[in-house]
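Lab manual, section 2.4: Encoding a predicted structure.

Procedure: take the sequence of the chain (206 residues), apply the prediction step described in section 2.3, and record the output as structure tokens. A sample record is shown.
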Amino acid sequence: MASIQRRARQTGGYRYRVQVRQQGQRHSATFATRAQARQWTMAVERDMQRRPAACDVLILGALLARYRHEVLPRKKTRMQVNQAQHLAWWAQAFGTWPVADLTPARLATYRAVLARDRSAGTVNQYLRTLSHALSLAVREWGWLEANPLRRVQYLPEPRGRVRFLDEGERPRLLTACRASDNRMLYPVVMLALATGARKMEILGLT
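Recorded output:
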């Protein structure tokens, strides 16, 4: 896709800035006339059509390796372990494919493969890891024009079980907390029962 913008010169007259963007490749130049800009645009587009696009050459395995090397070390240890497993699965599934071949239809097929022996929540975690890598390939690395996983639906996850203490369990829990060697256990549990606050919200109080 090409765009030509006319910009006024400070000294008078106009100049024409051209941007050509196609399959991850970008070129730009400035010309004195619109005719020159159009002529250059046509030449660049012909040349880009003759050459393989960057996304046709780059393979998913290289993208995942870059993500593992540059992004994964910045995450928490447990997340690193989980996402390393996700990346290894995707690399084995189609690590040799050009990134241009990652269509929503193909990704949906592999979502079904994952779902054969994994829960919906686990499948969605695999999809999120790959989606983050593809999003970086679009925003920062220039390997893709768009993230194909944006058009793949995540699996519906069942609601987690919600359980409340009954009238007999509550006093037994508080009695055990009072008997604990940890003096903070009783007030922490009391705050949790009274407010419904999360564990880290309570432990973060001063």
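Check your result against the sample. The longest helix spans residues 120-139.
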